[in-house]
Amino acid sequence: MTSMEKAKYLIIGNSAGGVAATESIREVDRSGSITIVSDEPYPAYSRPLISEYLANRRDLEGMLFRPADFYERNNVHALLGCRVKQLKVDEHAVELTDGREINWARLLLATGGVPIVPPIEGFDLNGVFTFTTLDDAKAIDQFLGHLVKRPIRAVVVGGGLIGMSVAEALLRRGIEVTIVEMKARILNTILDEEASALVEEALRRNGAEVITGHTVTVATGASSGEVTGVALDDGRSECCELVIVAIGVRPRVEQVLGTGIEVNRGIVVDRYMSASASDVYACGDVAEAYDFVYGENRLTPIWPNAFMGGRVAGLNMAGVPTEYEGGTAMNSLKYFGLAIVSAGMVTAPDDSYEVLSGKRNHAYRKVVLKDNRVLGMVFAGDIEKSGIIFNLMKDGVKVDGFKHALIADDFGLASLRQEIWRPKLEMPPSARASATGSLGQPEQILVGE
After folding, report:
1. How far apart are CA 393 and CA 397, in angstroms?
2. Number of structural domains found in the chain
3. What is the CATH number of the domain that holds 195?
4. 442 found inside a domain
5. SS3 for 2-32, per residue?
6. End of a domain among 264, 286, 317?
7. Whether the bond into 151 is cis, omega within 30 of 0
8. Interatomic CA distance for residues 319 and 252, integer angstroms
9. In contact, 268 and 276? CB cutoff 8 Å
10. 274-320 pLDDT tens trace
11. Residue 240 forms part of a structural domain
12. Which of 36, 168, 278, 384 sits most deeply, having the most CB atoms within 10 A of its CB?
């Protein structure tokens, strides 16, 4: 028999977006029932930190981005380790795999993304993993603990953010790592050629082999079912005991297909984070939300955008009309001491854009402009002033008159006209605190939910 429960607010997903929505709902509605459903059994933890876990530098407690009693303090019914079987939009209900059914008044879909695993022969062998959740990191750690053979060799398939994070963690554990990236350079979607080369140099300097412009065509295995190596499209082979598939993630939209909710690459939302179905909202990696650089809805699967989208969704769910100002691609990375920040367009699409760049004193700086407004940036080495540039970009400030100072060694607030920076300093302390990083450096940012 189906067990029926009711929730004023039902949130599917327990990462940045779901937590932010919970907090903003409670700012407005202290008593309305909130239920969070997550297929992971853990309290809300920071997904970007799973590489720190694998590197044996942080445990689960050190990964939590809210205290373990967060749910109790906010009067939240947390159903952790539970899966959604069916979403019934017209009935305002969801059915869980354990037979329970929950009726809701407002629904937030913060389901994140799932790893992309291409149909390559041998990717079902023992020793082949993905790397997006804490359970992935735990499984890899346990597998490594059982390996007797030394040295251990690993092949990372994919040279994006996930691939770089797991590669660094494995290198720190003394494992021999080969990275295979099908495009011409690593981190090609978030960095330009110069910054990509700096990261590749840092990886090679710390023992990694980097193969670009090629793909893995098959994973080979022993009769026992253990992976023993991979073959590449140029005929080369790499022996290994571990393969990490880190090609990327795609929005987790399976639950909404066929429900009438509009889906493009992700769930399409408006500026209030509302989906096309009544009383349904979405945020984070699963949602296509407004990008202020491109002026259109795009997938931007990063942690801060998920958090801010969740906060806006929660306020609207609780009856406080609030517009999402928009996010954009932005990443703050640090590989073996090399700090990098990128945001917006990192490569100019055509000659109508202006590109300013410079490389001095082991620091690389680049900004992409159009009509004297910053639309993108890449900083490597010295990232101290990158937060100022980002907020010039977010605020749409015209930088004619001081644009060349943006990449100068001595760039700072003094380089800007007073009418740009003075209003920021004159904000009340409470407002200034809520304007995260408004004049400073961006938060540490990695791949999203």
Report:
1. 7
2. 3
3. 3.50.50.60
4. no
5. CEEEEEEEEEECCCHHHHHHHHHHHHHCCCC
6. 317
7. yes
8. 27
9. yes
10. 999 999 999 999 999 999 999 999 999 999 999 999 999 999 999 99
11. yes
12. 36
